[in-house]
Amino acid sequence: LPEEVLIIILKFLPAQDLVNIRLVSTNLKHLVDESPTLWMTVSFPSIWPSQKNRAVLERAANVGNIEALIKLGLAHLYNEGSNNTNASENGRQAAELFCTAERMTCDPFTWFFIRPPWAPSGSCCKACVFKNMVEYCSNAEPCDSLNKSLLFCIGKILSLHEDEKRRSECIDWLQRASNLGSSHAAFEMWKMKSLEHALEPSAMLQSLRELRDIAMNGNAEAQYTLAMQYAAGNMGGASKDHAAEFLTQFLQKSKALNSHKLFGFQTELNNTMRYILVDWLVEVALMKDFSSQIVHIAVHCVDQYLMKRKVQRSELQLLGITCILIAARFQGKDIVTIREASWLTDDTYSYEEVVRMMGEVMSCLRGEVR
């Protein structure tokens, strides 16, 4: 077969099979080694960084494989799968990997990994990662539009701090990101401003107009918020016909779960198991006083993962608690810690297993949670 055809076929293989293919012949070894596109798209299902496979993951990360970048970054962040216990060095390497991943995606997501609260000590090195990300952005070209996601991440992290000084710094970072075209930063600033002027009718009108502009730029959160405002009768100067058309288009974007396709792919799971899992996630959300939106995001993450990766029955609850952990960190002020997530499953799953499942989900979804 021509090399072009072989490369297309090899793109469907997971990483371990790709490594094994290299051993078949010299020609295949050369083809695999000299084809960056293979390593850029190869998947690493259920593979966590270790001394045995680190070289393969690093090869993929070096050519921009988002899954490898996320898993290696998390391995350094939580000191999982790395022999290096130096928080400063792990933080530097995690920041480098996260910065590379962030420049390759549309939706900023790495802030989720290192958002406060930060532990004052321990193997987790979020503060070191944040410091290195700030240095990276400070040394980058001010007009580099690829940095807008990183600038947003820094601003978002600062906004979540209890320290008033740090929170006040977030506006500068968000403004820089917004100036480079980040709709996420624009929406974050809109939320802050709308809280300040919540009781002023004139300010509310202008606020809704600004929200509409952000939503028109394709920001999903802004579109959801605008839809909720229209549904509540807050038009912000828009006509009823325009609002009705927007709501119709917004609802049409929501696709129903194709359970037949999902459970045709999953061999150990069925619809009843999914219902039981969702009921349990609702119980967890009620116990934590989470919003219904967090539950919806968590279930969405579960379904998206199940559509792409096979899951054993024994791992389904682990997937569920990890997805609600992810949803809460993205959407809520109060979060589920990794240790708490383990406890909520009656310690069925360990801290390390939750960390690794978080890496599996986030890398599989390529950081696109919502």
Automatic annotation (TrEMBL):
Record has Cytoplasm as a keyword = yes
Which Gene3D superfamilies does the UniProt record give?
1.20.1280.50, Cyclin-like, Tetratricopeptide repeat domain
Return the Pfam families for the record. Cyclin_N, F-box
Q: Does the keyword Cytoplasm apply?
A: yes
Q: Name one GO cellular component term.
A: cytoplasm
Q: Which residues form the F-box domain?
A: 1-42
Highest taxon above the source species: Eukaryota
Localization in the cell:
Cytoplasm
InterPro entries, alphabetized: Cyclin, Cyclin-like_dom, Cyclin-like_sf, Cyclin_N, F-box-like_dom_sf, F-box_dom, TPR-like_helical_dom_sf
* SMART domains with a match to the protein in the record: CYCLIN, FBOX
GO MF annotation, one: cyclin-dependent protein serine/threonine kinase regulator activity
* Family named by the database record: Belongs to the cyclin family.
* Protein name per its UniProtKB record: F-box domain-containing protein
